[in-house]
Design brief:
Blueprint: E1 2-6, E2 9-12, E3 17-24, E4 33-38, E5 44-50, E6 56-58, E7 66-71, E8 76-81, E9 90-96, E10 111-116
Parallel strand pairs: 2-10
Antiparallel strand pairs: 1-3, 3-8, 4-5, 4-9, 5-6, 7-8, 9-10
Length: 117
């Protein structure tokens, strides 16, 4: 599996970003895909996930601000982030469910999001 996340950048508090992730190297349309993030000095945390049928789930800290979606025809998962806060600053990774426990070497480089005031 290859995971290529993109779309990160530097934005101000209250801004928006749309992350994209191409999941390739196999067929993953039947897998739940999650977006994880890792802030400096902190552990990796799951912030949103989407099932094969498109059912989303969010942690409380991003619910109402983030929207996860997927396009199986394009092998792509998206994370629309709005009303960004400084605490959203992190490296973001998209990960199919069978890799949620690692090995983390398969997670790729992720995409970095920096939110500043």
């Amino acid at each position: 599996v290859q995971l290529q996340a993109s779309g990160g950048g530097s934005v101000q508090v209250g801004g928006s970003l749309r992350l994209s992730c191409v999941v390739s190297g196999g067929i993953y349309s039947l897998n739940t895909i999650g977006w994880y993030r890792q802030a400096p000095g902190k552990q990796r945390d799951l912030v949103a996930s989407i099932t094969d049928r498109g059912v989303p789930n969010y942690v409380d800290s991003v619910r109402g601000r983030f929207t996860i979606s997927r396009d199986n025809a394009k092998n792509t998962v998206y994370l629309q982030m709005s009303s960004l806060k400084s605490e959203d600053t992190a490296v973001y990774y998209c990960v199919p469910d069978f890799l949620w426990e690692g090995p983390y070497t398969y997670w790729g480089q992720g995409t970095e999001v920096t939110v500043s005031s």
